[in-house]
Write a structure and sequence with these properties.
Largest sheet: 6 strands, antiparallel
Strand order of the largest sheet: 7-6-5-4-3-10
Radius of gyration: 31 Å
Strand content: 25-35%
Number of strands: 12
Number of helices: 3
Distance between the termini: 106 Å
Helix content: 25-40%
Order of helices and strands: HEEEEEEHEEEEHEE
Structural class: alpha+beta
C-alpha cells in the first residue's frame, strides 16, 4: 500500500494507520465523555443532598432564633375584658409572637407553625399588634417551610422551684405565661427518608412583667 507523502520526501502514515488513529481517538473521547458524565452526575447528586441538608439547617436555625426571641404578647379579651397572653401550642400546631421575623420586619411578628402529614411543616406570619393575632391568621395562607417532615411540639412547664415537666399542649391565655422551653421534633414522613431532627430551645422572656402567671392551672 502506498504511503502518503510528506514534505521533504519522508514517508507518512498509510490510510489504514490514519483510520486506526482516528478510531482510537474517537474511542478515547467517548470514554472521557462517559467518565465526565458520571462525575457530573455524582456531583449533582452530592450537591443536591448537600442543598437539602443546608435547607434543613436553615429551617432549624430560623425556628431556634424565633423561639429564643418569643415574647409574652398581651391583648385584651373581648368577652372578659381581661388581659391575656398569646401562646397556643398543641402537639401538631404552635402559635406564638416573636421579636424575630424571616422578612426582617420591624416590630413583633406572630408565627403559626403547622404539621401536615402530606405537605410537611407549614408556616404563616402576620404582624402582631395589640390584639389577638388569630383573627389575621384566618386570611393568611400557610406556606410549606420544610417538605417531607412532620413536627411534634412539646412544652416545658416549671411545676415548682425544683420540678419541671414536659407537656403536650400550652394555652397562654389560661396560664398567662409562656413555657420555659419548647421541643420541636422533626420526623421524615417517609420511612428512612432522612434523619430525625430534634430542637430544644429555651424561652428567655416567658413571663410578662405586669401579668402574674396563674399557678392554679398548673396543678
Amino acid at each position: 500500500m502506498q504511503r502518503l507523502a510528506t514534505q521533504g520526501g519522508q514517508g507518512g502514515f498509510t490510510r489504514l494507520e490514519l483510520l486506526l488513529s482516528m478510531a482510537l481517538t474517537a474511542l478515547l473521547l467517548g470514554l472521557l465523555s462517559a467518565g465526565t458524565y458520571t462525575v457530573v452526575t455524582e456531583w449533582q447528586r452530592d450537591t443536591s443532598g448537600l442543598d437539602q441538608k443546608l435547607d434543613e439547617a436553615l429551617v432549624l436555625l430560623q425556628l431556634e432564633r424565633a423561639l429564643l426571641a418569643a415574647f409574652p404578647h398581651s391583648y385584651i379579651d373581648n368577652d372578659s375584658l381581661s388581659r391575656r397572653i398569646y401562646f397556643e401550642g398543641t402537639a401538631r400546631e404552635l402559635r406564638f409572637v416573636s421579636a424575630v421575623s424571616p422578612q426582617r420586619r420591624t416590630g413583633l411578628t406572630a408565627w403559626r407553625l403547622n404539621s401536615d402529614p402530606q405537605r410537611g411543616i407549614e408556616l404563616a406570619l402576620t404582624p402582631a399588634f395589640g390584639d389577638n393575632p388569630n383573627d389575621r391568621f384566618e386570611s393568611v395562607d400557610l406556606q410549606t417551610l420544610l417538605p417531607g417532615y412532620e413536627a411534634e411540639f412539646r412544652y416545658l412547664w416549671q411545676r415548682n422551684t425544683e420540678e419541671k415537666e414536659w407537656v403536650d399542649s400550652w394555652e397562654g391565655a389560661e396560664r398567662l405565661s409562656l413555657p420555659i422551653a419548647v421541643q420541636v421534633k422533626l420526623t421524615p414522613i417517609e420511612r428512612n427518608a432522612g434523619p430525625t431532627l430534634d430542637l430544644i430551645t429555651p424561652i428567655k422572656s416567658n413571663r410578662h412583667l405586669d401579668i402574674e402567671p396563674r399557678q392554679a392551672v398548673f396543678q
